[in-house]
Sequence to fold (304 residues):
Amino acid sequence: MDLRLLSSFLAVVEEGHFGRAAARLFLSPPAVTQHVQRLESELGTRLVHRNPVSPTPAGARLVGHARTLLAAANAAMDDMVEAVREEKAGGGRPLRVGIMGHGSAELTPASISAYRRARPDVRVELRQLNFTEHVSALVEDRVDVAFVRPGPDDERIAADVLTTEQRIVAVPESSPIADARGHGVTVADIAELPFFRLPRHTPRPFTEYLYFNQEARRRGTDYAVTPQEVLTGVVNGRVAGSGLKSFARYYAWPGAVFVPVLDAPWQSSYLAVRARDGNPEVHVFRALTIALARELGPRISRAG
Fold:
C-alpha cells in the first residue's frame, strides 16, 4: 500500500475538510481527493463521507491502523537518517585499536571486552604496534586508539594515564645481574649492559624510556622493534631489554630473567588518541578505558 494514500486519508479525517488536509500536506485538493478515492478503491469500501466530511465506520476503524503504520514508517526513516549520519561521521568503519607490546597489561583486554559489550554492532580490529609506532600509527590514521608507553610528546596526540609501574630489566640467566632478581638493582648497576639498538626513526621519548634516559649507554649489536625480538636477543645472551613490571607476566620466556630497577622512576602506560578526533566511538572507548583504569590501574601497579 502506498503510504501517501494513508497520509492523505488521515489528514482528511483529522481536519474534517479536504481543502485543509491539502494545505497541511502541501498538496492540491484534487490530489488529496484522488488519494482517498484510490485508497477506497484498493480496500473496496467507502472510508469518508463527503458532505459533511466524516469517517465511515470502516474509515473510523482504519484511523488507528493508519496512525500506527505512519508512525512506524517515520521512525524507520529517522533510524535510516541517523545511520547515514553515523556512516558519514566514520561510525560505519571498525574501531582500530593499536597495542604496543602487552599494552596496559590486564587493563587492555578488559577495555576491549567492555567496549565490545557496550557497542556490539561496531567491529573492533586489533593491530600490534612496534616500538617505532609510538605516535605514527595515530598520526597516519592507521589506528584510532593506541595503548602505548611512555606518554607521547606531540600536540597532535591526547593521552590518558592508565597504569603506573616499577621498571625492570630483562637479562639472560647467565648475566651476573640475574642474581639480583630477588632484591633488585640500581640504574648504575645496569649502566654497562648491552641494550638492544633502536632504528633511527624511533621517537625520542620511547628511546629515552627504554634506556632509562642514559644517553651514553652502551648498545648491543642487535636491533629490535618488538618485545619478541628483544627477548630472542636476551635468551641468546646478546642483549638486555627493559620494560614495566607487568612485562614479566606476559613474556615469561625460559632463559630470560626480569630484575627490578629500584631507583628508576616508575613509568606509566597510556591510552593515546588523536587530539581532535570527532569519531564518537573513540570517545566511547576512551571513557570506558579511563573508568576501568580507576578500578584496575592500582591493582596492576601493585601486582607482583
The chain has a mean pLDDT of 90. The chain is about 40% helix and 20% strand. The CA atoms of residues 223 and 229 lie 8 Å apart.
